[in-house]
Every structure is written in structure tokens, then in C-alpha cells.
């Protein structure tokens, strides 16, 4: 008679319902009489069936589940009653609040007691001339002891709004319609009507109507089904199930069912449709066909409070919806991830909030692992993120990445079917690498967010192992930043992959500087090989310069200096007095570096040039080292002293060091003795002349200092500066005597030395001063006289020009030039002093012959007329 089958394509999309027998034919009819099922109604566990022989049956349905998880129904017949009518009931509707059953039979509505099946006395409990009715499941009256419904009048083009009470049916309002409706559904104030040629929405409170779409009720039976608050399902042309709300708008895409649909029911999120040979199940969420059941002779399909009942002419069946989780797991098992997520999110309104959140997270995590197994990493990451996956679930797929001390165990029931990464990749090295690359990116994002909270050690250790294995550049960044890598698990892994530099940083992060330095020294010495580090020696030097453990600094300083004395160790120091525990005293460092000449020189440069330490012994020591460095240096080809190895800033440092010398004994030790063969740091007469001049000044040997500056260096500016400095610091007499000597020997410097260095000595040395100043005074006064004469002549010329500029000069052909005595042929002329006109060429010739006129031509411009 009926059987469960696959969909029309031969494969089931998802098993949403099971078809379970509820009432067999033998329970409906006697042995001799065979009647067909006409209509059914269900209220809780009570099932009412009306057969074609006008008998109303009352059954009690008891749902059971077998040991194998199959659903069954045990049916108990409670009562049956013959209706007082010649025709069977066309429609039944239970009003449980009133304990009444509304029966449409022979175009009349009557009330029957739900328990005894006795008809309520007809004093107002019967309404005649009715073709169809619909109970308002969204009542607007607010009376809990009545049921609202709309009935279609058989005699008029109208719909009556009624209320059903325990003993009567009361008509409240008549709503006129354009044509007599064939079917209707009611929700609140809205009526969805199937007219003979179209569907419409009518608000019976305001009278506003909205036409929907045409439909020929003579060709196909119209279907109008309320599916939710102010939303209806309609059978549309072309085998479509259309959705429409109270405003006449379709907010869902239509479902595609067959042209011969007889009835429809809704069990969210599915729409169940019955045609001549099949029952189809479509999703309201994505409008896809989910299940098809083969069912013969079916003609009744209705939903009752979550149950879907299906009846043939001979029996009644229940379409039992499978649990939502079972349906979702079936979809996930068939790798239909998006459908599973749509079903989960669409069923949210039917699941308690807390339960839904837990279910949704788990489904997202399962979906993420399915897409991870398909190498769809971007989609998998998004599902993991939304599902708040414990990142250790993902790490556990990769062998040996989780620390041995981790207490993590996989989720039960499992989120995926993979034992490890090898099973997922099936021996494909490329897939393994892609999966590891994905995990690196995912763990980095997890560390940056809150996904790693509570198990940071597992995440950081796993990320370190991945970095080390892949030779990733971010390994050092991970170790240099705040991290929770476990040393016991990380150290063997780094050694395995020859990441000794990173291992040293890990030891340093865990406070084991001695082990880190020992490891790095072995790498530099060649005992170990780390291809990722190219300049480890300089890093060790910098590390020692920052190391607070002075014992380690002294331990490895000698090793570093033996490797290369040119590197600056940059020891921390306290140049004045006792040093903190974490700093080195500069005097101790200098004493230690006595056997390393080059390192000592660099360290003193560090103190003097970089730290700007103003201590005489450091500057003196540096000057002595510089002097030792340039002793014996050859003179350059251009005749100037050469100092190989001394760049300009070092030479300046030497001069500064010499200037800081305060002790006469130290200064004398630096200068050559009276007999050059007896030694001296600066004994070469061609080298370091400025420094020698400064030292002679320290010893008050100003004549020798000035002699070097003027005669050997020929630097008058330096000699001037020296006189200014020495006269301010040492007093006048010796400087004056020295400058007098220099005057007679170097005449070119006498003026500037007297003018700038000896302004207070005018009365002491008249012969010197007169000789030095005579020429300059004479030149100055001669210049002043010439300037005065020029100014007087210029004033006189301006006076003459203004005098003869007062009026016009009349020209005619009868007038003649005063110089050539020829007449004028044109008005162009020039005027001589006194206003006499002359030819321009005559005036030019005159000026060339007279020097005074030439000067006059340069000082003013003649007037032209």
C-alpha cells in the first residue's frame, strides 16, 4: 500500500522524516463493511478519523521507540460514533480549550464533544450554508474561552468572522469578497483567500485587500496554508509553492513541487507536499528537495502541533521528523557542509538559546574539519573561528607538536574522522606541507587573539616546532617576543633541526645565559653548524655588552678579543668612581686591555669620542697611543705630514687630548728633548705640529709655539687664535715679546697679530707699533681725502644740472652748433653747461678729448629735447 523510498533521482538528499503506520484499515471498519478515510484531526495524543460511512472514530496514539531507535505508534481505539448526517464530515478541527470538535458536514458546522463524541444541542451550536472554514491561530479577541474562525458562505460572496463557544457559534462580522472563495486561511486580521481565478490577501478590520497572482481553481485544487505569523503557503501555477506575507510580499524563494499537488503541510523547516504517487519534502531555508517518499492512494495531509499526519483511503500514517542533530550529522557525513549550516541556523527559533549555541559551535567545528580535509583552508579557518575551536584539536592532528606535558584529550564524540595528518594527506608530501603552512598561519592568529587563552604553552611550543622544521624567518621573532615555549620540549626539536642560534635565545629567555653563550661559542668555533645565522660573533659581542652577569663578560671577553680586536665590546662602565654591579669600571677595563693594544685604542676612543668623558688621563692615554701609532709615519708626496691610520676625527681627538694635558711632566714627556736622539713621543719635526704647538704653550714656550704656527704651518688664523688664548690665560709680557720676534721674522703676520692679539700693549712697544701701523694709517687717510674730493665734485655737477633744467630750449634751422658752427638739421641736440645747444656727435667728441668731461658723463645724463 505504501512504502518509504528514495527521491526521484534515486538517491536521498537527507532523511528528514520516517513514515510510521498509526491506524490500520482493520481498526477503522468492521469485517463486512469497508469504508474509506475522509478526514482526520489530531490534538495531542488524541486522533479523530471520519470515514466515508459517516462514522467518527476516536483513537489514542502512544509513541514508542524500539531498542534499535525506530519509532512506532501503539494505537488504542477509545470510541466511535455515527454522525447524524447522510454525508461524511469534510473537515474536523479540535478546540481543546473548549473540549469541542468543530465538524464541517453536509455544508453545516456543528460542535461535538471531544470525549463523548456527542453532538452539542443545536440551539445556536450549528451554522449552515458553509463550504470551508479556518480557525484563527493568532486570535485578536483576547477571550481565552472562545475560538475565532472564518467561514465561507455557500450562498453569498462573503466570509463570516465567527467565534465558537462551548454551546454556540456566533457570527461577528460579514466580509464581502469579489468572488466566492474556494479555500482560505486566517491569521489575526488577515484572510488569505483562494478565489476562482486568483489569490488575494484581505484585512477584514480595515477592508484593505491585495491581489497576489492568478490561479485557475478549475484546473487544480487551490492550496492555502498558514505557515507562521502573517505568512502563508500557496499553490502557484507551474508546480510552485509560493510564500506570501500579509503585505503580499514573498520573502522566501518558492519551492518547486509537482503540478498535481493535492495537499501541503509545514513542519519547520520543511514543506511536505502530497501528490498522486509521492510525498516530497522541501526545505524552506534553501528551497531544495530533501526527501521523496513513495505513497499510493494518499489524499489527506495535515500538520498538527509539530506532527504531520498522512492518510490514504485505508489507513493513517505519521511522518515522524528525525531529530535535528541526526539530520545535520547525516548532511555532514555526506560532506554537505553548507546545507548542514543552513539547517542548523534556520532551526534556531525552535531550539533553546543555550542548547543552540552549543550545537551551532559543534557543527561549525565539524564543518571546519571537513573543509580542512578537503584543503579548503580559508573556509575551514572561518568555521574554526566562528565555532571557537579549541586550537589543540587542530594541533593534535600533527604528530609530536603538542608538548609531552599537555593534558589535552580530543573531544568526544570526535569532531572528525582523521587519526592524524598522515591519514588525511594519504602520503602526499605536498598536502602535508600545505596543511603545516595553514597551521602556522592559524596559530599566529590564535596567539594574536584570545583563541590561545588558557593553553598558551601548547600553542607557542607547537608554533616553535613548525617554525624550526620549516626554517621559517619568524622563529627568532617568536623567541625574541614574550612567549610560553616549553624548554624541555623545544630544545630537542631545535637541536634536531640545527637551530642553535634560536636555541640559545630560548635559553636566554629562560634565564640560562651561560648555556646560551656556550652554545653560540661552539657555533662560532665551528663545532656546531647553524645555517640560519651568519654574523653570530658580532651578536655575541653585543650580547656581552648588555649582559648583567659580569662573570660571563670577563669569561668570554678574552675569547672575543682573540677572535677580533677591531670589534668594540661596548662594555658598560662607570667612569667616575665605583660602578654598579651590572656595569664595568672603565679603569678595570683599561687595565684588562693592556695586552690587547688595538682593543685598548678602540675602548679609549669609545670613552673620549663617543662618551665625551672629560678626564685627563683618558685623553692623555689616547694621545700617547695616537702618537705611538704615527711615529715613523712617512711624509706624504705633497709635503704635508702624514699619519696613517688617523682619520680627521681621531686627529681632532689627539689635539683635544693634548689640550687637556695639565701636568708639565706629562707635557714634557710628549715633546722631543733638546737632543732628538734621546726620545720623545712627538720628536719628529714634521709630524703633529699643531699638537706640538699646544704642548709648547702648556709649558709657556710661546716663541716656539708661534714659530711652529707661523713658519712651519703658515697658519696665521691659528696664530691669532693662539695669541688670544694665551694672552687671556697666561698674561701679556711673554706673548708680546714672542709676537715682536715673529714680527721681524714674518712681516705678513705683523698687522693681524698686533691688531687682534695685542690691543693692550700700545705704550710698551712704540717702534714695533709705529712700523706695523704706518702704511695702513697712510692708506686709510689717502682714501678718505680722495673720497671727499669726489663727493664735492659730484655735488657741483648736480647743482649745474638742476640750474639749467628750469625751462625749454628753442631750436630752429637758423641756429648753429657752438662747437662746429654748422646749423641744425634736426631737433636732436645736447646742451653744454650754460644751456648752449650742440650736436650730439660734437658733444661726444668733446667729452672724449676732456678727462673731466668723461667723468662728468659718468656722473649724470644730458638733457635731450
From TrEMBL:
Q: Which branch of life, at top level?
A: Eukaryota
Q: Name one GO cellular component term.
A: cytoplasm
Enumerate the spans annotated as CNH domain: 34-308
One GO biological process from the UniProt record?
A: endosomal vesicle fusion
Q: What is this protein called?
A: CNH domain-containing protein
Source organism (scientific name): Electrophorus voltai
Amino acid at each position: 500500500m505504501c512504502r518509504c523510498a528514495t527521491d526521484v533521482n534515486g538517491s536521498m538528499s537527507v532523511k528528514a522524516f520516517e513514515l510510521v503506520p498509526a491506524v490500520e484499515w482493520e481498526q477503522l471498519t468492521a469485517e463486512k463493511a469497508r469504508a474509506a478515510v475522509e478526514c482526520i484531526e489530531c490534538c495531542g495524543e488524541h486522533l479523530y478519523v471520519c470515514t466515508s460511512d459517516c462514522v467518527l472514530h476516536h483513537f489514542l496514539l502512544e509513541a514508542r521507540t524500539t531498542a534499535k531507535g525506530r519509532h512506532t505508534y501503539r494505537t488504542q481505539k477509545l470510541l466511535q460514533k455515527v454522525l447524524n448526517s447522510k454525508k461524511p464530515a469534510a473537515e474536523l478541527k479540535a478546540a481543546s480549550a473548549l473540549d469541542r470538535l468543530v465538524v464541517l458536514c453536509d455544508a453545516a458546522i456543528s460542535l461535538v464533544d471531544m470525549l463523548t463524541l456527542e453532538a452539542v444541542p443545536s440551539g445556536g451550536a450549528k451554522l449552515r450554508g458553509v463550504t470551508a472554514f479556518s480557525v484563527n491561530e493568532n486570535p485578536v479577541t483576547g477571550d481565552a474561552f472562545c475560538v475565532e474562525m472564518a467561514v465561507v458562505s455557500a450562498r453569498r460572496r462573503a466570509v463570516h468572522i465567527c467565534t465558537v463557544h462551548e454551546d454556540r457559534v456566533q457570527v461577528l462580522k460579514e466580509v464581502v469578497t469579489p468572488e466566492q472563495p474556494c479555500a482560505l486561511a486566517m491569521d489575526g486580521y488577515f484572510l488569505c483567500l483562494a478565489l476562482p481565478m486568483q489569490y488575494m490577501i484581505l484585512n477584514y478590520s480595515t477592508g484593505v485587500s491585495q491581489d497576489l497572482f492568478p490561479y485557475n481553481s478549475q484546473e487544480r485544487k487551490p492550496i492555502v496554508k498558514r505557515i507562521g505569523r502573517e505568512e502563508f503557503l500557496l499553490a502557484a501555477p507551474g508546480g510552485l509553492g509560493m510564500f506570501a506575507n500579509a503585505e503580499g510580499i514573498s520573502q522566501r524563494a518558492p519551492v518547486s513541487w509537482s503540478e498535481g499537488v493535492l495537499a501541503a503541510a509545514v513542519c519547520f523547516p520543511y514543506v511536505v507536499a502530497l501528490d498522486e504517487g509521492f510525498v516530497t519534502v522541501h526545505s524552506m531555508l534553501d528551497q531544495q528537495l530533501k526527501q521523496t517518499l513513495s505513497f499510493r492512494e494518499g489524499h489527506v495531509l495535515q500538520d498538527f502541533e509539530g506532527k504531520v499526519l498522512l492518510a490514504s483511503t485505508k489507513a493513517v500514517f505519521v511522518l515522524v521528523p528525525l531529530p535535528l542533530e541526526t539530520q545535520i550529522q547525516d548532511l555532514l557525513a555526506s560532506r554537505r557542509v553548507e546545507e548542514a549550516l543552513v539547517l542548523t541556523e534556520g532551526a534556531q527559533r525552535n531550539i533553546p538559546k543555550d542548547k543552540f549555541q552549543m550545537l551551532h559551535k559543534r557543527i561549525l567545528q565539524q564543518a571546519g574539519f571537513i573543509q580542512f580535509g578537503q584543503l579548503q583552508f580559508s573556509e575551514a579557518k572561518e568555521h574554526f573561528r566562528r565555532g571557537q575551536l579549541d586550537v589543540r584539536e587542530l594541533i593534535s592532528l600533527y604528530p609530536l607538536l603538542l608538548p609531552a606535558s599537555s593534558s589535552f584529550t580530543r573531544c568526544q564524540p570526535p569532531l572528525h574522522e582523521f587519526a592524524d595528518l598522515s591519514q588525511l594527506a594519504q602520503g602526499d608530501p605536498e598536502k602535508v606541507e600545505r596543511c603545516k603552512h595553514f597551521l602556522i598561519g592559524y596559530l599566529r592568529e590564535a596567539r594574536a587573539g584570545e583563541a590561545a587563552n588558557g593553553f598558551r604553552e601548547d600553542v607557542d611550543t607547537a608554533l616553535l616546532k613548525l617554525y624550526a622544521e620549516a626554517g621559517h624567518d619568524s622563529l627568532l621573532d617568536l623567541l625574541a617576543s614574550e612567549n610560553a615555549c616549553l624548554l624541555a620540549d623545544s630544545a630537542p626539536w631545535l637541536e634536531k633541526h640545527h637551530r642553535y642560534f634560536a636555541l640559545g635565545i630560548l635559553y636566554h629567555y629562560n634565564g640560562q645565559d651561560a648555556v646560551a653563550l656556550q652554545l653560540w661559542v661552539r657555533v662560532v668555533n665551528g663545532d656546531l653548524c647553524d645555517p640560519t645565522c651568519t654574523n653570530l660573533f658580532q651578536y655575541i659581542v653585543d650580547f656581552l655588552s648588555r649582559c648583567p652577569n659580569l662573570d660571563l663578560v670577563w669569561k668570554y671577553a678574552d675569547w672575543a678579543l682573540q677572535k677580533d680586536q677591531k670589534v668594540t665590546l661596548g662594555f658598560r662602565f662607570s667612569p667616575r668612581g665605583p660602578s654598579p654591579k651590572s656595569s664595568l669600571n672603565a679603569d678595570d677595563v683599561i687595565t684588562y686591555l693592556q695586552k690587547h693594544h688595538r682593543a685598548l685604542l678602540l675602548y679609549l676612543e669609545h670613552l673620549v669620542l663617543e662618551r665625551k668623558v672629560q678626564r685627563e688621563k683618558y685623553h692623555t692615554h689616547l694621545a700617547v697611543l695616537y702618537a705611538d701609532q704615527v711615529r715613523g709615519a712617512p711624509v706624504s708626496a705633497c709635503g704635508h705630514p702624514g699619519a696613517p691610520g688617523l682619520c680627521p676625527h681621531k686627529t681632532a681627538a689627539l689635539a683635544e687630548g693634548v689640550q687637556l694635558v695639565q701636568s708639565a711632566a706629562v707635557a714634557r714627556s710628549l715633546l722631543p728633548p733638546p737632543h732628538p736622539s734621546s726620545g720623545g713621543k712627538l720628536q719628529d719635526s714634521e709630524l703633529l705640529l699643531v699638537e706640538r704647538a699646544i704642548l709648547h704653550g702648556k709649558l709657556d714656550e710661546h716663541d716656539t709655539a708661534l714659530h711652529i704656527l707661523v713658519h712651519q704651518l703658515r697658519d696665521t688664523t691659528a696664530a691669532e687664535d693662539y695669541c688670544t688664548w694665551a694672552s687671556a690665560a697666561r698674561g701679556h709680557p711673554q706673548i708680546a715679546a714672542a709676537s715682536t720676534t715673529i714680527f721681524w721674522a714674518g712681516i705678513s703676520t705683523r698687522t693681524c697679530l698686533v691688531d687682534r692679539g695685542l690691543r693692550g700693549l700700545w705704550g710698551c712697544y712704540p717702534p714695533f707699533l709705529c712700523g706695523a701701523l704706518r702704511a695702513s694709517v697712510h692708506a686709510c687717510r689717502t682714501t678718505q681725502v680722495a673720497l671727499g674730493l669726489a663727493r664735492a665734485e659730484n655735488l657741483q655737477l648736480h647743482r649745474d644740472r638742476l640750474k639749467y633744467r628750469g625751462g625749454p630750449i628753442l631750436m630752429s634751422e637758423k641756429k648753429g652748433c657752438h662747437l662746429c658752427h654748422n646749423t641744425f638739421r634736426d631737433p636732436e641736440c645736447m646742451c653744454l653747461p650754460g644751456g648752449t645747444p650742440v650736436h650730439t656727435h660734437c658733444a661726444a667728441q668733446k667729452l672724449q678729448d676732456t678727462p673731466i668731461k668723461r667723468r662728468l658723463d659718468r656722473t649724470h645724463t644730458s638733457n635731450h629735447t
